Amino acid sequence: MGMAEATAALREHVAVARVAEVACVRLGTLAMGVGEFSEPLQRQGVTAVVEAMQAHPQVATVQNAGCFALDTLTKALSSAGQQAAAETGAIEAALNAMQAHLQNRQVQLGGLGALKSLCYGYDAAMLRAAQAGALRVAVAAMRAHPQVELVQLAAIWTLVHFGKGEANKHRAAEAGERAVVFAAVKAFPKIKRIGQHLLDVLPTRRERGQSLLKAFIITPCLNSFALT
Fold this sequence. Notes:
CATH topology of the largest domain: Leucine-rich Repeat Variant
Shape: globular
CATH architecture of the largest domain: Alpha Horseshoe
Helix content: over 70%
CATH class of the largest domain: Mainly Alpha
Radius of gyration: 20 Å
Number of strands: 0
Strand content: under 5%
Number of helices: 14
Distance between the termini: 73 Å
Oligomer: single chain
Largest sheet: none
């Protein structure tokens, strides 16, 4: 079964969870292979996968297979392809899967992998993911799986790359990122370097307080004085 056939089967039988799971795995496996597929065909596959994930939000096997397919189908997409994937709701599908199946480490790893493929190198997609809660979801994954090194590493990668910019740094801090990153650095020596880098750039609680004070009290007061 080729990519076009797997996509057609997925769309035709999207309401059947077992078929959706198998078809998503097939699409993901095909995208990992040596064959070359046109970008329009890959985009069609992404759309079908998102529809399957939306149809079965509580079925962990479908969500895991869907995240796997999104990861592999979108790795080589152009910026236009990444934009098209984002517009189908692929980013939200991965985030929803992670939130619905927080204790399932395979879904957490698959979701983080899907976010990386969907967004890396495309700033608009990264911003969309951050605004949709990617930083908060990554922190939740770290909290739920403190002893799983792969989850910790994948989540920290997400925090580093999706957390750029002051607004995103504060989103991460509000999610409690410093505490989980500090714990990961202590638990896993391989994470120490990237984890310490993240701790160095994240605002502390005091810095967050000062920023909020400036934004909501000091600056408005100065502006009001300037107007009088």
